[in-house]
Amino acid sequence: MDIGVLRRDGRTDPFFDGTAAGRLVVRRCEACDRWFAPDETGCPGCGADDLAWAEASGEATLVTWTVTRPRDSDQPPAYLALVELAEGPWLHTRLDGVDPVSLREGLPLRAAFVHPDEGESYVLFRH
Amino acid sequence: MGASIVGLGMTELGRVYGRSPRRLAADAVRLAVADAGLALGDLDGLLVSHGMGGSPGIELAGALGLRDLRLLSQVNAFGATAGAMLSYAATAVLSGTATTVACVFADAPLKPKKSAGSAYNRDAREWYGFGGMTAALGLRSVNSFYALAAQRHMTRYGTTSEQLGAIAVSTRAWASRNPLAQMRDPITLEDHQASRWVSEPLHLLDCCLVSNGAIAVVVTGADRARDLARPPVHLWGWGQGHPGHRKERGSEYGLTTGAASSGATAMKMAGITTDDVTACELYDCYTYTVLVSLEDYGFCAKGEGGAFAASGALGPGGSLPTNTGGGQLSAYYMWGMTPVSEAVIQARGDGGERQVPANDVILVSGNGGILDHHSTLIVSPHEKGA
């Protein structure tokens, strides 16, 4: 499945500045010492709606996955997943270069950054 | 005093073109009112379900020429909306807010000469922001999000594709007895296994249909219901469950759903337990949602939904007839109105070839979002406590 071209939308600058530099930047509530996915808009703990951006380690584990195979196409299957960052939040993402028979809950993963010719850099996860 | 469903209106369902969702909704309300032996002017309440394909809002009242309504609202709990609407209608009737309330769902996502799959899929060359990034990476359809949930259940509990397939097969067996069902040819487990992957672990035959059309019901007080045209279907209990599973460490996403709390609330109100339920009409956007709902309602233990489904309990002749009209998997995808309408048909004894042997207590579910929202109704041909 072609990934296509990713564009910023005004809410994503720190995230895509991070991916361009090979860093996974997510959201964090300093007051509650809690980490969130990059698309989180507020802290449900304290109600703060001005979450900070903070660099995550890039370490993660596999929660669950699905395999999509493009119809009428010889493209390889895409391994899509929910992964749990070491800091706690889950991300919807795509796995890269994984062995299908190795997939299991808890499989250790690490963020990997892709820098396409056109559009923003993005993050995948590899074993 | 209780509240009862007294009218059911169903337009043509499936590849029905040339009528807007608003027109379909208006037609269904007219059919439901006529079915009850009432006139449109008898309605003093109207609840309109949110939908995806340009569904109507509260302007539907004007399109129907309804005047002096005492209750009018659009309701949105995604796939849990139908059960929620009926509970609000019942509550309105019991409180005296209104006497006679129509609840309607209409949608028309199918377009002529377009595949059913294209109705909800996203595709683009450029993607914007975080939502765009998730779609760009490949999560472009609700199917993939449910596949993630189903895979988690399989990984944790050993649930198999064949067990999900048992639900597809039993549901189709029921559909083959329903003249209104879109898919009536019987299928085997081999057919299920051979159907293409939509998003692994979900095969095509694990996924619901896409349908155009509308379904409406009319709710009024049980005392008034006795004098109307059709046998009343009494609302014994209702509940909702919105678990708020966050996507973070410790989440029960894919493992448990709002059916647990929603079912407990509804069954307590109805004064019943799962042992009293004689048939289920469950929200089956996927075979997996049937399986996980059965577990969360307590028809079997957590993790044993697969074995329960594979036992044959859900099909014709089984101990817990489930989705007896063919559900959303094989009959028609009218969101929560699919299970509601089949419960009304069964409670009235109108099931024909598919009439269940015992219709005394029917459990109806709704499921919305990605397992984010759940509603439950308990209905019966008998007055509560009678």
Automatic annotation (TrEMBL), chain A:
<protein>
    <submittedName>
        <fullName>Putative OB-fold protein</fullName>
    </submittedName>
</protein>
<dbReference type="Pfam" id="PF12172">
    <property type="entry name" value="zf-ChsH2"/>
</dbReference>
<feature type="domain" description="ChsH2 C-terminal OB-fold">
    <location>
        <begin position="53"/>
        <end position="114"/>
    </location>
</feature>
<dbReference type="InterPro" id="IPR052513">
    <property type="entry name" value="Thioester_dehydratase-like"/>
</dbReference>
<dbReference type="InterPro" id="IPR022002">
    <property type="entry name" value="ChsH2_Znr"/>
</dbReference>
<dbReference type="InterPro" id="IPR012340">
    <property type="entry name" value="NA-bd_OB-fold"/>
</dbReference>
<feature type="domain" description="ChsH2 rubredoxin-like zinc ribbon">
    <location>
        <begin position="17"/>
        <end position="51"/>
    </location>
</feature>
<dbReference type="Pfam" id="PF01796">
    <property type="entry name" value="OB_ChsH2_C"/>
</dbReference>
<dbReference type="InterPro" id="IPR002878">
    <property type="entry name" value="ChsH2_C"/>
</dbReference>
Automatic annotation (TrEMBL), chain B:
<feature type="domain" description="Thiolase C-terminal">
    <location>
        <begin position="254"/>
        <end position="380"/>
    </location>
</feature>
<keyword id="KW-0808">Transferase</keyword>
<dbReference type="GO" id="GO:0016747">
    <property type="term" value="F:acyltransferase activity, transferring groups other than amino-acyl groups"/>
</dbReference>
<protein>
    <submittedName>
        <fullName>Acetyl-CoA acetyltransferase</fullName>
    </submittedName>
</protein>
<dbReference type="Pfam" id="PF22691">
    <property type="entry name" value="Thiolase_C_1"/>
</dbReference>
<dbReference type="InterPro" id="IPR016039">
    <property type="entry name" value="Thiolase-like"/>
</dbReference>
<dbReference type="InterPro" id="IPR055140">
    <property type="entry name" value="Thiolase_C_2"/>
</dbReference>
<dbReference type="InterPro" id="IPR002155">
    <property type="entry name" value="Thiolase"/>
</dbReference>
